[in-house]
Galactokinase
Amino acid sequence: MKNNLTLEFEKVYGNTPEYHFFCPGRVNLIGEHIDYNGGKVLPCAISLGTHLLVSKNNEGLFRFRSLNFEEKADIILANTYTKTGKDWFNYPLGVINYLSEKHKLQGLDFLFYGNLPTGSGLSSSASIEVLTAYAIDQIFSLGIDKLDIVKVAKRAENEFIGVNCGIMDQFAVAFGEKDKALELDCDTVEYTAVPFKLGDYVLAIVNTNKPRKLADSKYNERFTECRTALAELQKELKIQHLCDINSVELEAHLDLIKNFTIAKRAKHVVSENERVQQSIKALAADDLSTFGQLMFASHDSLKNLYEVTGVELDTVVDYCKKNPNVLGARMTGAGFGGCAIAIVKASKYDEFAEGLDKYYFEKIGYRANIFKSGAESGVRNI
């Protein structure tokens, strides 16, 4: 891979790259739609991600090239930069825009290459953003700590790109650790590394290839529903977030929530938060079987109570439930498309992937992409 990318850089720029960096994508193992309700998420970095080869130039330009996209740009160094349409290079440019507020940069030739499916919910944009900030810090010895790199990347996504994401994606791809998941509080940004050793199993990632067209609008809808549930519970309970109570307490006060649908949303949030805590205990005890069952339970809750799955994700998980070589599976991310994950016996992975491909095609009419990973390290030099 490294040699091939070096050759590509030489074709594009006519010289050998001085630097090579890599930033992974991420999946959330469990803890969906609870980060904005005071709960904790449990993401891990994966093996797929984005490579960046870089050399300095003396022309006072940031040159952006990618092996994934035809669009390219040569941008003159300035104090501030402006987003240009929807082109991919806005992601690194947004990072440069905010780094330029405090640091004087020089011209750079960039070549990006990634194998994260765009729009699949595996954080390809966060991977590019963190990668860019990390590379510039390393090249110019700016001394930016990793958390500030994360914050710059998130700011680029929120303000420059205009996507109102939380901090999980950027944090997970920056702080990921080999064979570890991250128990992350998205409000305080406090985290604990949790063992995630798969042993005889692998993490299968299944891209449904269903565009997540509803994800943003339904996200906002669910956010509002949760705020309504919280306000009604606060009439009797002194809580700041839905995740401040457990299932027993919720059940005892469920009559406060007048709308049946909103009550279902609250049930998912509270039970999912409990599943995260149960998952952490199971993984610490090296109990993948229990964790797998919690994954299935999470998906069922997201399907029946939170209603954010859809036929494509449900088809993947239905197949996994019938397969004796799968310990657990669930959707990951916002839902309505994107990816599902599964814990699959390594020796049976090829058989699993072949069977799922056939099953999914017969049910949906087009194919899913299936690949395997473990929990990997975050952004790094190559």
Notes: The chain has eleven helices and 13 strands.
